Fold this protein.
Amino acid sequence: MSRAAPLLPREDAREAALFFVVCALCFLAAFSGLIARAAYAAADAWTSEVAGEITIRVRGPEADTQRAVEIIAKTEGIASAHALTREESEELLKPWLGAGGVPAGLNLPRLIAAEGAAGAGDSVAAALKEANINATVDDHETWSADARRVTGTIGLVALSAVALLGATGIAVIAFATHATMLARRDIVELLHLSGARDDFIAGLFERRFLMLGVQAGALGALLAFGTAAFILFAVRQTDEQAWLLPQLSLSLADGLILGLSPLIAGAASMFAANLTVKRSLSDMV
Amino acid sequence: MPDNDLSTDEPVLRLDRVGLSYGPKSDVLADVSLSLRPGSMTFLTGPSGSGKSTLLRLAYLALRPTAGRVSLFGVETNRLRRRDLAPLRRRVGVVFQEFRLLDHLSAYDNVALPLRITGRPEASYRQDVIDLLGWVGLGDRLEARPATLSGGEKQRVAIARAVVGKPDLLIADEPTGNVDEEMGERLYRLFRELNRRLKTTVLIATHDMALVRRAKNDVLRLAEGMVVRVPLDQREGQP
Ligand SMILES: Nc1ncnc2c1ncn2[C@@H]1O[C@H](COP(=O)(O)OP(=O)(O)O)[C@@H](O)[C@H]1O
Ligand SMILES: [Mg+2]
């Protein structure tokens, strides 16, 4: 004796197609979520790396450089300061001039690297000016702000993509539920005429689409992580300085995206099913 | 029309000057009044297209009338909210003209469906369903899918489903329309037995005049949007 055979029949190709679409949407949404997360994390990492680092370029005679180091070291909020050697300066220039190095005769700017509290740059500039040393002070504020703006924009675009994909997913599921409803109108009508309450009938579809959403969402999110992990792995292999991807390591936030995707997909499916079924039922007496 | 309801009981079904049209064209039902006594068994006759199925749809609350009032078990349904109709529907068993069995469910599951939607646990009704299928002569087809059943067998599954919840009103739309004369007689006896044993009020739409003549039940005739009581046998006859 078959116990509690499902009132809705196991579905056919139509449901497989829906599963694929929801899965693909969840993949894209989770991937966008990962990019957004990576962008914000990258902004944090870069700006915290340079926060408190101050670079001073001295334009006056050689002697001024030594004097400047002493003045800077004594300035409030500065932990350490030292003049960069020619080797250190060359190291800095390497990415631009290549491994061939700096031509021997080239006059390199004299640079002082200092570390200290954020905002100490202004005190250093004031102290140097008082000592009559011609120097420019760069505390990377402008650069940090630029970096934050760029990564913020990427993150915002990715978040918008997540929202758009989410809305699309809900719409697709609503259409699909409606199609299933129409294909199964005989069941809905029979249950309705037998005295089943709207909630009971809606519940059948809700459970069906909740399961579909959760499963498709989980698969989509896992695929997104697989893809991200693969990209990360490939980039590490080539040993290049990748500017965004190094931040793409598994963290708590990523786990949250992985865990939430199926839940959101499931809840969206359920919600769409409820809405569609209830609306169709309200057309019946 | 004169209401010849002799019992003091509330009519099970009462239509009061009911009109119904599906569109802006002429009315399918113009001015229909009727009432069914508790425990009565009534045939609704009339030519094809006269509106028998439409009248039944009003009775099992699949349609609302465009004019007049429909009362079930003494409750006037016009004023009820949607959600208050569900409990009334559970007291009405319907044998649809086109069976409306669910293809993916076994005979057993089809019959159990009205009980299932009440939320009762299966254990509490399982034996009833099996007994009922035995009673309609399908005790050995519990697991059969509708697609593998003959017309008469499907009709009997549909009847079992209609009565499994022990309805107060049983409505059947052309239940003998798709079966031969012998099966028609057998189905009729099922209805009569239900009517006698369980005191279920029965309303059967049919254009099978041979059956109507043989049986000695109340007969309502639907023509030109109106119902008239056929004064053949006013009271239920004893065979
Ligand atoms: N859903 C519907 N929409 C429009 N017209 C309908 C509908 N159902 C029935 N009709 C029309 O109403 C009339 C009565 O139909 P019906 O109640 O099925 O009669 P019967 O059951 O006596 O054959 C017919 O003319 C039919 O074409
Ligand atoms: Mg009909």
User: Anything to note?
Assistant: The pocket of adenosine-5'-diphosphate (ligand 1) is lined by residues B 22, 28, 46, 48-54 (CB under 6 Å). Chain A touches chain B at residues 1-5, 7, 9-10, 186-187, 189-191, 193-198, 200, 282, 284-285 (CB under 8 Å). DSSP finds eight helices and four strands in chain A.
